[in-house]
Description:
mainly beta; 9 strands; globular
Amino acid sequence: MLLGGATPAQRNGVWLPGGTPVNATNMKDIPFQPWARGVVADRDLNELEPHTRCKPSGVTRPFLTPYGVEFVELPELQRIYIFDIGGPHTWRTIYMDGRSHPAHVDPTYYGHSIGWWEGDSLVIDTVGFNEGFWLDRLGSPHTEKLHTLERLARTDLNVIQYDVTIDDPGAYTKPWKSGFNLRWDPSVELFEYVCQQANYAHELMVGSNDAVDRSSPIVP
């Protein structure tokens, strides 16, 4: 697979957020509709992010977790799976068999994704999202009209460039783009992660703290 990943010969390795931002979008530049901008302000003060409470998160959010993601391509099934290692124990399915989106899609956290290769870039087209997750860690909202186009390209051995176009006429005044880099860490192996509803990391869910004490046997 062009994006790389763990293999039977080398079982370790995951993709983590980091490196140099690519087309990073400041919140002030996002074309929010007035109601959507108000939702962001309210979430910042009063809400707990669904992902930190073990809920799946679509689009960019899984790539921003500190535990990383893993790509698994199954050519015989013509599918790619993206595993969200931390949090809700979930994965995305990308159909690579040339199909189109169904005429009617029951809304889900990850929506319905079809993909194809353009040279060395994986392009993922997704519709059919529900409204139960945040687009990012800052609380950007969306509606069921959301349509995303993601592009992932491995720029060198240890970097994937991730770009996304957000098109949601229900929440934004026009489509907008953002992106960042993922970095390869060959020392990390896919591991069992237990998502606790007890909110041991509540300090990070609401407030200005940047870190918590991780010396306890219970690590958030």
